[in-house]
Amino acid sequence: MPRALPKKTPHRSCTTRFCHFALELKMEAFKEAWVDIDSEQRGKIETSEFVRYLQTKGHDDVFIDKWRQVFDADDAGEITLETYCDVLDIRPEELQSAKSLLNDVKYVSGDMPMDWQEKVVKVTKDVLAMPNLKLSDLSKQIKIALDRAYGNLWHVMVAYGQFSCYFGFQPGFSYIFKIGKQVFIVFKTPQT
C-alpha cells in the first residue's frame, strides 16, 4: 500500500512525490543543516556550502542535485533563510532559536531529533540556573522536570571528564551532550 502524503502543501517547486516523502522524513536533518552551515547567522548560505554539507553527510549526487534545485530554483548560487523556511514550511524562529539555545552545547551521542534535543537542553539549563542547587541534586532535578513536562520515564546521569555507559532506551530518546565540563546522559524508557 502506498504511503500517504503529508497534508501540508509544500513549496511551489517541491511538487514531486520525492519531495513530499523527503520533507516528511528529513525535516530535523534539514533544520540541523541550516544551523550548522549558517553558524554566523547571516540569514543566507551559498548553494555550494549546502552541497558540500550534504556530501559530508553521505548523500548521493541525485539526492543533492534535486534538493539544490528545490532550494535554489533560480540558480542564484545562494539560499536565503526565507526561501529555506518556505520550502520546508517552517518559521525562521525555529532555526534561530535552536542555534541560540544550543550555542554552548556540544553533541556527544544519541538518536534524539533536534526539537527534542532543544527541549532537553532547555530543561537542563533551567535546572542549572536554580539558586542553591547542590551538585548531588542536579540529575534528580532534571529528571523530575523532564517527567513533569514530557511524561515518565526519563533517566539522567551527570558525569565529569571521562565516562562510559551502556543502556537501553526508547528509540528517538537518547541524548548525550556536554555543557561546560559536565556531560549529561539523558534517555527515556517506555512505561510498562
From TrEMBL:
InterPro entries: DLC_sf, Dynein_light_chain_typ-1/2, EF-hand-dom_pair, EF_hand_dom. Pfam families: Dynein_light. Residues 25-60 form the EF-hand domain. One of its GO terms (biological process) is microtubule-based process. GO terms for cellular component: dynein complex. It comes from the Eukaryota. PROSITE patterns: EF_HAND_2. One of its GO terms (molecular function) is calcium ion binding. SUPFAM superfamilies: DLC, EF-hand. This is EF-hand domain-containing protein. It comes from Macrostomum lignano.
